[in-house]
Write a structure and sequence with these properties.
- By secondary structure, the chain is α/β, with parallel strands linked by helices.
- It has one domain (about 5-310): TIM Barrel, CATH 3.20.20.140.
- Helix content is about 40%, strand content about 10%.
- The protein has twelve helices and nine strands.
- The chain has helices spanning about 15-20, 35, 65-80, 90-100, 125-130, 160-170, 180-190, 215-220, 235, 240-255, 280-290, 295-310, and strands spanning about 5-10, 40-50, 85-90, 105-110, 130-135, 175, 195, 225-230, 260-265.
- The strands form two sheets. Strands 1, 2, 3, 4, 5 and 6 form a six-stranded parallel beta sheet that branches.
- β5 (about 130-135), α6 (about 160-170) and β6 (about 175) form a beta-alpha-beta unit.
- α1 packs across α3 (about 65-80).
- The chain starts with 5 loop residues before the first strand and ends with a helix.
Length: about 300
């Protein structure tokens, strides 16, 4: 099915382009402008991410800062080289205008506060760079909080609380995917604006540390945030097919999350399920949901509208 509208909350494509010296227009990964050309309207969160031990990670005392700037240059360079097809956006209005012009809308995000030195003082520049959302942690605990994988008992530190407050002041979305559950509840207590889980699933459907409990899902729904369904096979679990993705969606909907369910494919960051090997295969999920009785309204909210709401 071509011409569908897609707004996806997480990909690691920029990090992949940086490491592999490939372009966003055409590459050997899961997401490219060649692949997304089949969509009608298309918006994407592009994460800046790297970690110690990964190809291209700089060494030395200023390695984190240099990694951020190297990734940012890569992102900006890809935007410039493909300006006729995609443009960086900061708001829903800008994204809608880009889509009306036949262009894709790119939102810049940061995965792991350590890329910004866990420093609230660097958030103003990040906002000027156009950063729209920040995952407080990746897999590793940092000065802001524990993660779902490391020091999960640790919540937000005093620095983490300051970081979150400053993010909200700057209208940067707080992203709780990868965060420890203790950190999650600290964010939920502090949040004055909607926060998101850009690429997470339902723990009641598949019991994985990276998935969200019903309490966490309810908190995001109450906060009017969004949860991006993650297609990483380990987080989908079970039969690792479209039926299992649908099970995660059904659980979120059953909890009242019709306005909070979104897409968060984790493209170029993981081994996705066999039915969704790349972003252009999302048409399979769209058709699958319609065949199983979901209304066009529910599917379009999932695929585009809900995420557009939180970037306003």
């Amino acid at each position: 099915m071509e011409g569908i509208s897609v707004f996806d909350a997480h990909c690691d494509t920029i990090s992949r382009c940086w490491r592999e010296y490939e372009g966003l227009d055409r590459n050997t990964g899961m997401l490219s402008l060649e692949r997304t050309a089949k969509f009608g309207r298309y918006c994407q969160f592009f994460a800046l991410w790297t970690a110690d031990g990964y190809t291209g990670y700089p060494s030395g005392g200023d390695s984190v800062e240099r990694a951020y700037h190297a990734l940012l240059r890569c992102f900006k360079g890809q935007m410039a080289r493909n300006a006729d097809r995609i443009i960086q956006c900061r708001t829903a209005g800008e994204a809608e205008q880009a889509n009306r012009q036949g262009k894709a809308a790119a939102f810049l995000t940061v995965e792991g506060g350590e890329l910004l030195g866990c420093d609230p003082g660097r958030l103003e520049q990040a906002a000027k760079d156009g950063v729209k959302a920040i995952n407080l942690t990746w897999n590793h605990a940092n000065a802001l909080s524990g993660s779902s994988r490391e020091a999960p008992e640790r919540g937000l530190s005093p620095l983490g609380r300051e970081f979150v407050s400053k993010m909200e002041d700057l209208r940067i979305l707080v992203d709780v995917s990868h965060l420890s559950e203790a950190g999650f509840w600290d964010v939920a207590e502090l949040a004055r604006r909607p926060f998101i889980a850009s690429h997470s699933n339902a723990k009641s459907v598949w019991d994985h540390t990276r998935n969200l409990t019903d309490g966490q899902i309810n908190a995001i729904i109450k906060n009017q945030g969004v949860i991006g369904l993650n297609f990483y096979e380990d987080f989908v679990g079970g039969s690792r097919d479209l039926d299992m993705v649908r099970a995660h969606l059904d659980h979120i909907l059953a909890l009242g999350g019709g306005a909070s369910a979104a897409l968060g494919g984790d493209w170029d960051g993981c081994d996705t399920i066999r039915d969704l090997p790349a972003i252009d295969s999302l048409s399979r999920l769209y058709e699958h949901l319609l065949r199983h009785g979901y209304s066009e309204t529910v599917v379009q909210d999932l695929f585009y509208n809900n995420l557009m709401r939180v970037v306003k």
